[in-house]
Write a structure and sequence with these properties.
By secondary structure, the protein is an alpha/beta fold. Helices cover 41% and strands 13% of the residues.
Length: 674
C-alpha cells in the first residue's frame, strides 16, 4: 500500500498555520459567546500537519469521490474543522465570524450536506469514529470492485479525530473491534488524549490502558507528543505504511493550549475563554491581538497547498479518462454507483409473489432483496449475527459472498453482535457514496440502533433498516423480544419512513421504495410468522403500498358502516372480521396501512378518499401501542393493540390473551355499538 504525503512546509510557517487555526477557532467561539475552544486550541498542530501534508481534497469539488475523508468525531470541537476549511478555501473567514448563528455554514456541530467539506455529521461522541470505519470499509470494497492493476480510481485514506469521550462511548469500542478484525489499514485515527472531561480530569471515571485496548483489538498503536509536528507527520507516515491494521495515534495534548490560566483545565472545554484570557493567550503565543487574523505567510503557504491538491486531482481525472477508455463496462458501473444513479428500468426487478402462498415477510423480504441485488451491485449490508433469521444474505448478482479480514470483495458483512456500530458504520458507507447500505437485526433491538437511525434521518443518509420479528407474535421468546412500542417510537422520528407490510407483495414494494429513497432512512418491519399472500385479483394492487395506506377491500357502493384499518399481520385478521360482518349484512371497508407516516404525506384529497370524514366508525388493529394512530381513529375510533408488554407462549395463545382474535374484535365492535 503506497504512502502519500506532500513536502513539509517550513517549520516557522507551519507553526503560524497552527496558531492561525488555534486563534481563528478561539475567536469564533468568543464571537458566538458559545462553543468549545479547548479541543481546537489543543489539536491545532495535528490539524496543520493533516491539512498541509497529507489530506488530498479538492476545494472546488468538495464531494470528489477519491478525496481523503476527515471526520471530526469529537464534533463539539467543530471550530477546528471550520478553521481548516477556511484555510483550505472551502469556507471563508466571514463564515467563521458567524459561528453558531442561525443559517450559517458554521453550526455548533459539523453537519453533513449543509456545510461544504464536512464528511459526516458529528456530535454524539463515538458515532463519527464508527462512521469512519464504515468509510474505510467502503474504500476497500470499492477498490476491490473497480480498481485494476493499472488504475486505482478508489484509493484514499480515512482520517478521524476522536477525544476521550469517544473512547468512553461503547459505539467506538464496537467499531474499533470490527475495524481491527477487518484489517482496515487505510483508517487512521487520532486520539486527542488531553486527559480532560467536562467534570474534571478523565481519571475521575476513565483509567484504562487505551493503548493496550487498541493493541488487543488488532490496531497499530503509536504514542506521540500531539504538539510536535515532526512527530505527528512521522506517525502518519508510519501508519500509512501498515497495510494490515488500522492505526491509532495517541496524541498527548494540552486542552486550551496557550491560554495561561485555562490550559490543561476543564474550564477550557465547553465555554469561551473570555476576552481577557483570549488576549492573554495571544500574547503568550506571540500572536496578533487582531480578531480572525490570518498572516500573509499563511495565505501564501496555503496557496501552495491548494496547488498540490489541484495536481493530485488533475492526475486522478487523467487516470479516470484512461480508465473509462480501457475498461468501459466497469467504469460505467463505477460512475453510476458513485453518482447514486439507478439503472434504467430497475423497478422491473420488483418480484411478484403468487396468491395464497404462505410466507413470512422476513422470508419474502430476503427474496426481494436478492431480486434487486441481482441488478444492483451497490446494494450491500449485513446483520448483527442474525442473517439466517433476518434472511438478509445477498446470494445473487455480482460480487457475492462475505467481506472478511483482508478480503473486501463481497456484498455481505458479518457485523457480529454490534448493532450500534453496524448502524453507524452503514451511515458512514452511505455518506461515503457508492453503496445502498442495509443493516438488520430483530426489531426489538432497534433500541441499540436508534442513535444510528436518528443520525441517518437528521443527515439524510440512505440506509435500509431491515427489522424482523416485528410483534408479540415472535411468541415463545417472550416480552424481551416482543417490540410492542418500537413502531410508535420510530413513527415520531422526522424523515424516517417505516413499513409494516401485510404480505410478500407489499414487502416487494416497500423494498422498492427504500431503494429509491435517497434522502433518508427506511425501516422495514417484517414478520417472523408465515402470512398468506393476498390474491390481488380480489384485492387492490400491491403497488398502492407506495401510498402508505390504501383501500384493500372496498365496501359495496363506497358506503361503509365500519372501517377496519390494520398493518402487517393484523391485516389478515381485519379481513377475517370483515368477512364475518358482511355475512351479517354489514357494509365494511378494509384499509391496509403499511406505512402510516407515508400515508399522512399523501394529498388530503387522497387521504379523504381512503378515510372519508363521514366514516366515523373506525377500528384500528395493530400489535403495538396506540400512539400515532390518534388522527386516524378520530372521535369514535377503537384501537385494538397492546397496553403493556407481551408474554412468553405460542403465538396462537398470545393472540387470545391480548385480544387479537376475530371473536374478541367483534365483541369490541358490538360494545361500541358500531
Amino acid at each position: 500500500m503506497p504512502t502519500h504525503s506532500y513536502p513539509p512546509i517550513a517549520p516557522d510557517v507551519a507553526q503560524k498555520i497552527a496558531n492561525t487555526i488555534r486563534f481563528l477557532s478561539a475567536d469564533g467561539v468568543q464571537a458566538a459567546n458559545s462553543g468549545h475552544p479547548g479541543l481546537p486550541m489543543g489539536c491545532a498542530e495535528i490539524a496543520t500537519v493533516l491539512l498541509t501534508r497529507f489530506l488530498r481534497i479538492d476545494p472546488k469539488e468538495t464531494t470528489w469521490w477519491n478525496r481523503d475523508r476527515f471526520i471530526l468525531s469529537a464534533g463539539h470541537g467543530s471550530m477546528l474543522l471550520y478553521s481548516m476549511l477556511a484555510l483550505a478555501g472551502i469556507l471563508s473567514v466571514d463564515d467563521l465570524k458567524q459561528f453558531r448563528q442561525l443559517g450559517s455554514h458554521t453550526p455548533g456541530h459539523p453537519e453533513f450536506g449543509d456545510v461544504p467539506g464536512v464528511d459526516f455529521t458529528a456530535g454524539p461522541l463515538g458515532a463519527g469514529f464508527a462512521a469512519a470505519a464504515g468509510m474505510a470499509l467502503s474504500e476497500r470494497m470499492l477498490a476491490e470492485m473497480y480498481n485494476t492493476p493499472k488504475f486505482d480510481v478508489m484509493s484514499h485514506y480515512t482520517y478521524v479525530l476522536m477525544g476521550d469521550g469517544c473512547n468512553m462511548e461503547g459505539v467506538a469500542l464496537e467499531a474499533a473491534s470490527l475495524a481491527g478484525h477487518l484489517k482496515l489499514g487505510k483508517m487512521i485515527a487520532f486520539y486527542d488524549d488531553n486527559e480532560i472531561s467536562i467534570e474534571g480530569n478523565t481519571s475521575l471515571a476513565f483509567t484504562e490502558n487505551v493503548n493496550a485496548r487498541y493493541e488487543a483489538m488488532g490496531w497499530h498503536v503509536q504514542d506521540i507528543d500531539g504538539h510536535d509536528m515532526e512527530a505527528i507527520a512521522n506517525a502518519i507516515l508510519a501508519a500509512q505504511g501498515v497495510e494490515d491494521k488500522p492505526s491509532v495515534i495517541v496524541a498527548h495534548t494540552r486542552i486550551g493550549r496557550g491560554a495561561p490560566n485555562k490550559e490543561g483545565k476543564s474550564s477550557a472545554h465547553g465555554e469561551p475563554l473570555g476576552e481577557d484570557e483570549l488576549l492573554a493567550a495571544k500574547k503568550n503565543m506571540g500572536w496578533s491581538e487582531e480578531k480572525f487574523y490570518v498572516p500573509s505567510e499563511v495565505t501564501k503557504a496555503m496557496d501552495g497547498v491548494r496547488a498540490q491538491w489541484a495536481e493530485t486531482r488533475a492526475k486522478w481525472d487523467s487516470d479516470m479518462e484512461s480508465y473509462e477508455g480501457s475498461h468501459k463496462a466497469i467504469a460505467k458501473e463505477f460512475i453510476r454507483v458513485m453518482k447514486g444513479e439507478l439503472p434504467k428500468s430497475w423497478k422491473n426487478a420488483t418480484p411478484e409473489f403468487a396468491a395464497n402462498e404462505k410466507i413470512a415477510t422476513r422470508a419474502s423480504g430476503g427474496k426481494v432483496m436478492n431480486a434487486f441485488g441481482e441488478i444492483l451491485p451497490e446494494l450491500v449490508g449485513g446483520a448483527a449475527d442474525l442473517a439466517p433469521s433476518t434472511k438478509t444474505e445477498i446470494k445473487t448478482g455480482k460480487y457475492p459472498g462475505f467481506v472478511g479480514a483482508g478480503n473486501y470483495l463481497g456484498r455481505n458483512i458479518h457485523f457480529g453482535v454490534r448493532e450500534h456500530a453496524m448502524g453507524q458504520m452503514m451511515n458512514g458507507m452511505s455518506a461515503h457514496g457508492g453503496f445502498i447500505p442495509f443493516s438488520s437485526t430483530f426489531f426489538v433491538f432497534m433500541d441499540y440502533m436508534r442513535p444510528a437511525l436518528r443520525m441517518a434521518a437528521l443527515a439524510k443518509f440512505q440506509q435500509i433498516f431491515v427489522m424482523t420479528h416485528d410483534s408479540i407474535f415472535v411468541g415463545e421468546d417472550g416480552p424481551t423480544h416482543q417490540p410492542i412500542e418500537q413502531i410508535a417510537s420510530i413513527r415520531c422520528m422526522p424523515n424516517v419512513t417505516l413499513f409494516r407490510p401485510c404480505d410478500a407483495n407489499e414487502t416487494a414494494y416497500a423494498w422498492q421504495y427504500a431503494i429509491a429513497k435517497q434522502d433518508g432512512p427506511t425501516v422495514l418491519t417484517l414478520s417472523r410468522q408465515n402470512l398468506p399472500t393476498l390474491d390481488r385479483t380480489q384485492f387492490a394492487p400491491a403497488k398502492d403500498t407506495l401510498k402508505g395506506g390504501y383501500i384493500l377491500e372496498l365496501d359495496p357502493e363506497g358506503i361503509a358502516e365500519i372501517v377496519l384499518i390494520a398493518s402487517g399481520s393484523e391485516v389478515h385478521l381485519a379481513l377475517t372480521v370483515a368477512g364475518i360482518l358482511r355475512e351479517a349484512g354489514r357494509r365494511v371497508r378494509v384499509v391496509s396501512m403499511p406505512s402510516l407516516d407515508l400515508f399522512k404525506q399523501q394529498p388530503e384529497g387522497y387521504r379523504r378518499k381512503v378515510l372519508p370524514k363521514r366514516f366515523k366508525n373506525r377500528l384500528v388493529v395493530e400489535a403495538g401501542v396506540r400512539m400515532g394512530w390518534e388522527d386516524i381513529l378520530g372521535d369514535r375510533g377503537i384501537f385494538v393493540g397492546m397496553e403493556g408488554f407481551g408474554a412468553s407462549g405460542p403465538a396462537e395463545e398470545l393472540a387470545k390473551k391480548f385480544g387479537f382474535t376475530s371473536e374478541q374484535i367483534l365483541d369490541k365492535l358490538a360494545e361500541a355499538d358500531f
